Structure formats: C-alpha cells, structure tokens
Amino acid sequence: MPLNNLKVICLLLGIVAGGLVGFVTKPPQAASVIPVINVPVQVEPKEKGDLTNRQFNHVALCALIGGIVGLGFGFVADRRRA
C-alpha cells in the first residue's frame, strides 16, 4: 500500500494512541465530601465498566491531543518525503 495518505494514517494512529494513554491514566472516580460532617462519599458508575463523565472527558481530551500530534507528525513526514 503506497503511503499516499500518510497524514490520515498518522492522524488515526495519534487518536488511538492518545485514547489508550487517556484510558490508562484516567482519573479516579469522583469523590464527594459532605460539608457538614466531612465524610468522603465515593460515586460509583451504574455498571462496573462504565466511565464517569469526568473520566470520559479526560480520555477524549487525550485522544484529541494525540490526534493533533499525529496529524502534525504526518505533515512533517509528508513534507520530508516530497
């Protein structure tokens, strides 16, 4: 397969790599503190495998950053190839 779509390939690899990094480094589930008695309360998702909204935003942001880095790498690699 010729590397005509080097930018697209690098973009997809960046999105996947960023998503994996974001999933591995996701923040712990939200912990709320009741101000009156100062007791931490853990918020559990509905099912064991579900991500909370904060965790999903973290993974999506890492995937976006990875995609931007991958696209930039694709532009540089394509420019050097030409």
Structure description:
The protein is mainly α. It has one domain (6-81). 59% of the residues lie in helices and 10% in strands. The chain has helices at residues 6-24, 53-81; strands at 31-34, 39-42. It has a two-stranded antiparallel ribbon. Strand 1 (31-34) and strand 2 form a beta hairpin. The longest helix is centred in the last third of the chain and has 29 residues, at 53-81. The chain is elongated, with a radius of gyration of 19 Å. The protein starts with 5 loop residues before the first helix and ends with a helix.
Key traits:
82 residues; 2 strands; 10% strand; 2 helices; elongated; mainly alpha
Topology:
Elements: H1 6-24, E1 31-34, E2 39-42, H2 53-81
Uncertain runs are none
Beta-strand percent range: 5-15%
Based on secondary structure, the structural category is: mainly alpha
Q: What is the CA-based Rg, rounded? A: 19 Å
Separation of the first and last Cα atoms = 17 Å
What spatial form do the alpha-carbon principal axes imply?
Answer: elongated
What is the mean pLDDT? 80
Q: Spatial order of the strands in the main sheet?
A: 1-2
The string of secondary-structure elements, in order, is: HEEH
Q: How many β-strand runs? A: 2
Helix content: 55-70%
Biggest beta sheet summary? 2 strands, antiparallel
Counting DSSP H or I runs of 4 or more residues, the number of helices is 2
How many domains, as an integer?
1
